[in-house]
Specification:
- Helix content is 74%, strand content 0%.
- The chain has 14 helices and no strands.
- The longest helix is centred in the last third of the chain and has 33 residues, at 236-268.
- It starts with a helix and ends with a helix.
């Protein structure tokens, strides 16, 4: 009976995995088909000839190399600034003693209930007043801090024994040195998780990019894909090639570091 239950669970998990993986597989396969094969009914499962020309067309008709460079710059900048601000905020809410600390942190957690779409209004007003509209800096600012990442890292910091802090203080280390020499190296799994989650969010940002940019020079890959779709018409094999260019880097990043993400999130939620 126990073996039967395990078999059923594994079959359900396998079915769920296939449902989630199949769209990505179909996107990749469709990007290598001809126009006739894409529009065939019933659809062909595998192309007779691999049409890598679809990728060449995508790069010729849209400056995906420029979009890629912009996405890399924005993603790296967002990750670096987010990790830095998260470390400082998590340390303050886990180790520093000041009046109203827990109440303030609870209020910040409550702000997680506010959808990002609502915050777009204030973010847009801010970048307009700063004169940053239609710049790469405008794409970076909204992603430089996160209470969710602070929550993960704060809980990780709370799991570090207080004895390490007192020993460091006895040895003459101040809070700044203790943070960067002891706590940050110990919290590496959580920091890797935060960096990866932020990288994925920054890379896939579409709505904010569409609102905050007007010119091709500052577009990133997701919005570049939308612009490509509008200009190239309904040629699904070419759209799938362009979509593959956008999606594959983050899929590879997630596959390579998926264990770090699961480990960091689970360990970060053990204590709070």
């Amino acid at each position: 009976m126990k073996t039967f239950k395990h078999t059923v669970v594994y079959l359900i998990l396998l079915l769920g995995a296939l449902v989630m993986v199949f769209p990505f597989f179909w996107m990749l396969v469709s990007s290598l088909k001809t126009a006739a094969e894409v529009n065939t009914t019933p659809p062909t499962f595998w192309p007779q000839n691999l049409m890598f020309e679809n990728y060449s067309y995508a790069f010729e008709k849209a400056p995906f190399l420029l979009y890629f460079k912009n996405s890399v710059f924005v993603t790296i900048s967002c990750v670096a600034l987010t990790v830095f601000t998260t470390i400082l905020a998590a340390f303050a809410f886990s180790r520093l003693k000041f009046p109203g600390r827990d109440l303030l942190f609870s209020l910040l957690l409550a702000m997680m209930m506010i959808p990002f779409e609502i915050l777009i209004i204030t973010n847009y007003t801010t970048v307009v007043k700063m004169g940053l509209i239609d710049t790469l800096v405008a794409l970076i600012i909204p992603f430089t801090s996160s209470i969710f990442y602070t929550y993960i890292l704060r809980n990780f910091f709370l799991s570090i024994p207080d004895s390490l802090y007192y020993s460091a203080r006895v040895d003459g280390a101040n809070n700044w040195r203790y943070l960067w020499r002891i706590m940050v190296p110990i919290a590496k799994p959580a920091l890797v998780t935060i960096a990866l989650l932020n990288a994925i969010a920054s890379w896939n940002s579409f709505l904010w990019t569409m609102i905050a940019t007007n010119s091709t020079a500052v577009r990133t890959l997701p919005f570049g894909l939308y612009a490509f779709m509008s200009s190239s018409g309904i040629r699904y094999e070419r759209l799938m090639a362009a979509a593959t260019i956008v999606v594959v880097p983050m899929i590879l990043l997630f596959v390579l570091f998926r264990k770090n993400i699961v480990s960091g999130v689970s360990r970060g939620g053990l204590k709070g």
